[in-house]
Amino acid sequence: MTAPGTPVLRLESVRKSFGDQLVLRDISIDVPAHSVTALIGASGSGKSTLMRCANLLEEIDDGAILLDGEDITDPRADQDAVRRRIGVVFQAYNLFPHMTVLDNITLAPRRVHGVGRAEAEAEALGLLERLGLAAKAKEYPDRLSGGQQQRVAIVRALATKPRLLLLDEITAALDPELVGEVLAVVRDLKTQGMTMVLSTHEMGFAREVADQVCFLDAGVVLEQGPPEQVFGDPQQERTRRFLRRIVAAGRLAPQ
Question: Locate the ABC transporter domain: which residues (predicted)?
Fold first, then answer.
């Protein structure tokens, strides 16, 4: 039983290096239930590495990562069981090209979670309907637009009923006109209470949808707080410089 008030995800002084390069430096973040945490920062700041560590795709060097109070970085933790509780969507859609949309979505529920085919397909079709993709259930990925493929990737992550959803630059590979349809899905998930961590270059969207924003710079959480504070009254000069460049590029407007 998870104690009341326990964050769904907690990072405690997490450090990660690749060789001599220290990529994450004592990262500490709490992600409460039913909240959205946005990670912002320049390319190379450590956002994607943090996401990969949170899903145990990368092993941390020091610190701890807790999921519902359980130390999932403990060597005794069942990593496969942990990953079954976390949904992940990356900027590359990673759909199986030889499988239909429906088969892509139902593969993990059937093979990993032991759900029967009929039940898995019924739930998948319900999710596809919700995201406006019901007509694409029998299509193959190469027949879909980039935005449709990314929405299918989100449905695939949701089909396992995750406790936590990690979204890593999910619009980075999309043409600008397709970004809005994917972000609309994330807005919908927020209204339904999904706990999410997302890394994004869409500052206007982060400002709109996030409950807390973490600005990463050179592997450090340099600034952390509600979006109105981080975007409206940043305390660190480095944050202010970053946001000035974003404003100059016209990327702080809502999507």
Answer: 9-243
